[in-house]
Each structure stands twice: as C-alpha cells, then as structure tokens.
Amino acid sequence: MRPVALSSRHEPRSRVIARDSSADGDARKARVLFCLGGPGAGKGTQCAKLEAEFGFVHLSAGDLLRAERASGSADGELIEAYIAEGKIVPVRVTLNLIRKAMQASVAHTFVIDGFPRNSDNLEGWDELMSDVTDVGGVLFYDVSHDVMQERIMKRGETSGRSDDNAEAALKRFRTYEESTRPIIEHFKKRGKLIAVPAAGDVDEVWGLTRAAIEALEVYQE
After folding, report:
1. Which of 44, 51, 151, 157 could form a disulfide with 40 if both were Cys (CB 3.0 to 4.6 A apart)?
2. pTM of the model
3. Which backbone phi and psi does 18 adopt, to 5 degrees?
4. Helices then strands (H, E): number in the chain?
5. Is residue 89 one of the residues assigned to a domain?
6. Closest to 13 (Cα-Cα) out of 67, 52, 60, 45
7. pLDDT tens for residues 82-125?
8. Which residues are annotated as a binding site?
9. What is the average pLDDT score of the chain?
10. Domain interval for residue 140
11. Which residues are annotated binding-site positions for a ribonucleoside 5'-phosphate?
C-alpha cells in the first residue's frame, strides 16, 4: 500500500481518476471501492476494466480464496468446504488475504470485488482495516437471478470452478439475498451505493460503469 505515481499506460484519456501522488512523501490511507453483486453479475469483468483504464488495483476476494485453497495451506480445506456449500468464508481468513495483497502492492487505490459479503465481513473490516483505508462506497452490479444463473452455467463450461453449477448457484443466490443484500442496503442508506444496471452485454455495462466512476469526486485528485 505504498503510494506511487501510476504509469502512463493506465492513462488512455487526459487524466487518471485513481491517480496516486507520493511527491510530498505523506503516508496516506489507501482508497478503497468495494464491488458487490450476485454470483454471475459480472463483477470480475468490470473490475478488470477499472484496473486497465482508471488505475485501480483489482483484488478479487474469491480469486484470493481460491488461490489460497489451491496452495495447500492450513486454511485450504476450510475454504474448499465453504465455497462448495456456497457459504461465506470466515472473515479472519478473507481479511488476512486481502490485507496481505494490499501490503504487497505499490499502488494506493483498490477496487475489492466480492467483499464485504455479510455483516461479519463489514464489522471485521471496520475493526481491522479502518485505520489504514478510506472506503469511498460500493459499486453494485444489479442483475436478475435468471441472468446470473445463465451466465454461471455458461462460465461453468470452461471455468473448472467447483461452484459453477446449478446446485451451487442456488445456494449462492440464497446466501447473497440473506447475507449480502443487507450490506448493499446499508451503504445505500448512507449515500455510498453506486448502482449499475448489469443485464446488458460487457460493453454496455462498462459504459455505465465508466460514467459512474467519473462522477465520483472521492477518486479524483
């Protein structure tokens, strides 16, 4: 999380919204944008575009967990059991992986997708990360269960993920509605929800995402 000027390769237009400045040498809090949506909402695809165009560092909670599961670590089996059941992995595990990834980065502005997924996640973040981060809000991809399930089934043809199947999808939808939807409402009530209709194709949703991010003063220098 060390501040550093972003490379010009992240600057297709006249400015970069997620620009970092280390000229004064001040130690600043990392800026964070959470990204939420149901399974198959397109979070990862759009966050990758945010990274390429605006200079955010994209951290996927799901990808970090799957990598840890594959590493053979002590937490690997626990992670596998939770993912296979569509349940939310204990916050201590997820937060530890996110914090390590942030500390390993030289960037200062992050979009974290798939987190926080429940009240325990949010409380853990506030307790352990609020001293080193400022959260600008939640980017929320809003799409119906039918569209998400169709995308999951299509993705499952090639992804090799243990949770990309109809049975796991239903469990994940249930968990999303019961645990993550209240988090979305929490940020909405505080005026920190950036809702993007996400039923369209990738380019259509990206156009809406770009417009939403450009309107966020918190990510502009």
Report:
1. 151
2. 0.81
3. -90, 35
4. 9, 5
5. yes
6. 52
7. 988 888 999 999 999 999 999 999 899 999 999 999 999 999 99
8. 40-45, 66, 87-89, 114-117, 121, 155, 161, 172, 200
9. 85
10. 30-215
11. 66, 87-89, 114-117, 161, 172
For residue 159, being part of any structural domain is answered with: yes
CA 124 from chain centre, in angstroms, equals 16
Tokens of 176: 């999303």
Residue 63's closest CA among 121, 9, 3, 112? 112
DSSP secondary-structure letter at 217?
G
Q: What is the dihedral of CA 112, 197, 209, 105, to 10 degrees?
A: 10
Binding residues for ATP: 40-45, 155, 200
The answer to whether residue 13 is domain-embedded is no
Q: How many domains does the chain have?
A: 1
Q: How many Å apart are CA 219 and CA 92, to the nearest integer? A: 28
Neighbouring-strand partners of residue 113: 35, 60
Binding-site residue positions for CMP: 121
Examine residue 6 and state whether it is found in any structural domain, yes or no: no
Instruction: Specify the amino acid at residue 106.
Output: V
- The phi and psi torsions of 87 (rounded to 5 degrees) equal -95, 165
